[in-house]
Batch of 3 targets.
Target 1
Amino acid sequence: MVSRKLKKFFDKERVDWLGLLEPKDRDRIKGPVGPKDCYEWTGKYAGSGQPMRFVGDGKSAIAYRYIWEIVYRKRPPKILRHICDNGKCVDPLHLMPGTVRQNNDDASRRGLLKRQLSNREIHEIQYWIDQGRMMKDIGLEYGVSPEMIGQIRSRKRYAWLSWEPRKPKDVE
Ligand SMILES: [Zn+2]
């Protein structure tokens, strides 16, 4: 249930943040949907369940962070929490700065932590490791810790799986 304080926040004058986005991004958002009037991302999702948007140079960003930056014209805080608890939501008014602890609590409630990686995902992670991508970024995209990526790299984890890097399908 939404607390009174949050309700007030949701009802606050809604800035026309959609109007600030590129048309192709507006086309990737549907809303308002659900009990909290969320705006959900219909574009690409990472294996971790995070909404993603390509930003050029083969890089992708978490869609709601990308949108937050456009709307507020500054870098988003390290951790943005969904006060609507809807991981698909990209509405900047539904995101608030949070602590690592709060974020982990949110994630475990949504079942994002301790996820099992598929063989396909591991081969993709091998690809990103070979590409020299940062472990933190790879972990973020696949919903696992950077330590886990390090263990895959050093063959402490998933050593039974051969090193056959596979380029993810949706990478240009
Ligand atoms: Zn929302």
Target 2
Amino acid sequence: MTPPESDAVTAPESGTGVAPEADGGRARAEFGPRAGGDGRARRRRRVAGAVTGALAGGAAVALAAVVGLGGCSATSASAHAKGPAELSVSDGGYVPRPLLTDMAAAYVTVVNKGGAPAELTSVTTPLAAHVTLHTTQGTTMRQVPSLTIPAGGRLALGTGGDHLMLENLTHRPAVGDTVPLTLHFTHATPATVTVTVPVRPTTYQPKD
Ligand SMILES: [Cu+2]
């Protein structure tokens, strides 16, 4: 009789509105050692077993319906768990030619074929004294400490969205120059990736 009970791992919590916390726990478990998540699951399993034992008749039917949802989310979570983040940087990155030497934007796309998310935490380049990570909300851009590359997904930087801001340039680059960018990641192997991107005209728009 254990299989139905272990399927109920997250179901009682979903039913009581604790689901966001449970999801947060699952997301954190993907970053950290798996032992932590397994321990949490074992504790939930014991609780689920006790709850199931206390239920009877129609209540058990209702629980079975919820179990369907819990089983589904558990399945999709494990479907994504195909090992650590596996990152690469796509072709097509560029730096639009800056108008001055105080700052320039830079755009790259990072692809994650792994089963865990990773974070882009910093970027270095010989062209700039420092590089900040920016996100755009409406027409306002805001510096952020990191940008996430989701498991099985991508971080696509571009005009009007997330971007790199190169500040205090050593010089104003010309169209056709190239700019090395070293991206530093956490929760990923390799932890750094260096790409060389071209300088494009100031008003350049990439084709989709
Ligand atoms: Cu910006």
Target 3
Amino acid sequence: MPASRVPDVLHIGPYALPNALFVAPMAGVTDRPFRQLCKRLGAGYAVSEMVTSRKDLWDSLKTSRRANHEGEPGPIAVQIAGTDADMMAEAALYNVQRGAQIIDINMGCPAKKVCNKWAGSALMQNEALAESIAAAVVQACAPHGVPVTLKMRTGWCAQHKNAVQLARRFEVVGIQMLTVHGRTREQGYKGEAEYDTVAAVKQAVRIPVVANGDITSPEKALAVLQATGADALMIGRAAQGRPWIFREVAHYLATGTHLAPPLVEEVRQLLLEHLQDHYSLYGQATGVRSARKHIAWYVRELPGGEPLRRHINTLEDCQAQYQAVDDYFVQLGQRMQRLPPSSTLDTLMESELDCLAEVAA
Ligand SMILES: Cc1cc2nc3c(=O)[nH]c(=O)nc-3n(C[C@H](O)[C@H](O)[C@H](O)COP(=O)(O)O)c2cc1C
């Protein structure tokens, strides 16, 4: 197996990152508890969920939760989204004053809420505006020594892939790292990510380029690195309920061999700690609901996972939810020491699945 070309140490401005495997920003998912967990399990860097540039929303509970970085290992990177250069510069400063050490500009999000306001990946359609936003944010951050990075897609649509042109413009105005998700805005999350455009961006600029999109396994991570020559990889959806994917990828890139799947007991402890941290950030009433998706992701491929998910959705009390998860993993641990590798899940015997379904009922 060829050694990976991913650098041991990657710098963003003055910050040396422990490795070049990043957690993708995912609104509603990559909150502080989840980011911390990913970092503990091998991610070298995490960008927080996007914070709007709209001042009227800065005092909202949602925004203040998103700006929570208590105990998070640095550097603290905050993503901002918006459509107006001055407002974006102000939003960057607001976050710098609250502890952001790196500002990331969102030009990758296809969500309607963002695109209707001409933000996120919609900005890629207007190169002059996109460049002026990047320049304004860089200028606002420079006196504070805060590097600015930017995340984008390959372009607006298949006929208009302008990531390379934009990347050159962003580099000139002082953007210090670029992440490229290998889809167009038009694709949303459909189709497959392509990496030729990411490779072309890497060739076109001297700043670090991060490849993102559909990295779901250690093998895919290596293939994307080889196809793009990227300086780092960013993983989003495949880390949902599987935050240990970072150490699995890191191990594979370093050695060409696979780590054993995690012990059921380790996953039990990780998830229970994740839940405690989640409840303490969101409070009991909100936390019990917002934790459901995380639990569902952890167990989605596991025997009895679907009945557990349905059961969890009926519970409105954190303690009951926590207990149900604990019971499920204790019983799973009596049947298997380690999580099954994904490829063998399909072959689990029906009786085994039935048995575990009872646990969740
Ligand atoms: C639920 C969800 C929320 C997302 N929120 C953001 C966001 O706030 N900012 C952003 O730049 N990208 C966001 N993305 C895009 C991801 O960062 C990433 O680019 C995309 O999921 C592709 O990577 P993946 O295939 O590894 O998931 C989001 C994606 C998902 C699934």
